[in-house]
Amino acid sequence: MRPVPWWLAGLALVAACAPWAKFAPPQPVTIEGYDGDAMEPFLSRDGSLLFFNNRNDPPEQTNILWAERIDDLHFRYWGNVEGANSDTLDGVATLSPNGRFCFISPRSYQRTLATIHCGEWAGDHIDRVKLQMKAAPLIPGRVVFDVELDASGEFLILADGKFTGGPVPASADLRLARLVDGEYRLDPSADRLFAAINTPALEYAAALSSDGLTLSFTRLEGRPPFARTSIWLARRDNPGAAFSSPIRIDTIDGFVEAATFAPDGSIYFHKRIGDRFTLQRSARMAR
């Protein structure tokens, strides 16, 4: 038998000492009245509303949809989020408790190099949608393709991807934009917050707990058709601190992406099963 590498043993020890990274095996989630693909879930901070988008391909048919909670594993479908969707890809919704609603759409990227749009959630639609120009790096080939609002709505975590051809970015890292004078602005000084997270692999699909102390993200390693994804968690002591080295959630496997937190600490995410993308829930294990 080969000896266990010292670094692998170290990771196992860290995971064993991190009860906040322990989750039960996933269970499937049903959206009553909806039978299509479900991707990129976001659960409102009170757990009552689920936002998601249908399949990302073809992009011109990708819309943001919503549903209301029945119980942990069942939601009732209500349809398109009016005011958000266009004739191109629209997805990755996120909502703060004060009603700020943001999402991703490349509808004007060729002209503006920006993709983050924010408006106000009005209970069943979005008003006053505005492109967030200063939240993007504004470099040709660089595309912000994921976004997550913190609970206060004062900043957002985004995935900054470099595209050189094809649907998968050549690189992707987590970054932060702050709300300044009514618009979000990319903050390069905040890159330090993710120094222990960003790697040569692709990091994206960030999710923050309501207290801002736990971060989930997706990591993609390898290239198609051999790419593999995993969902990770990192912690910090206070909202201004950098995140610690992350731990992979080992009970979640397969092609999985885009976790979102429920009020009880469980997470929802999407998983490819066969040729379909479905929503799953993993409960946090009792400490």
**Helix/strand order, N-terminal first:** HEEEEEEEEHEEEEEEEEEEEEE
Major β-sheet strand ordering: 2-6-5-4-3
Strand content: 35-45%
CATH-defined fold name: Neuraminidase
Secondary-structure-based class equals mainly beta
Helix segment tally: 2
The largest pleated sheet is described as:
5 strands, mixed
CATH H level: which superfamily?
TolB, C-terminal domain
* Residues in helix, %: under 10%
CATH architecture: 6 Propeller
Number of strands: 21
Protein model, in words:
There is one protein chain. By secondary structure, this protein is mainly beta. It has a single domain (20-282), classed as 6 Propeller (Neuraminidase). 5% of the residues lie in helices and 44% in strands. The chain contains 2 helices and 21 strands. The chain has helices at 6-16, 109-112, and strands spanning 27-28, 30-32, 39-43, 49-53, 64-71, 74-80, 91-95, 100-104, 116-121, 126-131, 142-149, 155-162, 171-180, 183-186, 202-208, 214-221, 228-235, 247-248, 256-261, 267-273, 276-282. The strands form 5 sheets. It has a 5-stranded mixed β-sheet with strand order 2-6-5-4-3, with no helix packed on it. A 4-stranded antiparallel β-sheet has the order 1-21-20-19, with no helix packed on it. Strand 5 (64-71) and strand 6 form a beta hairpin. The radius of gyration is 18 Å and the shape is globular.
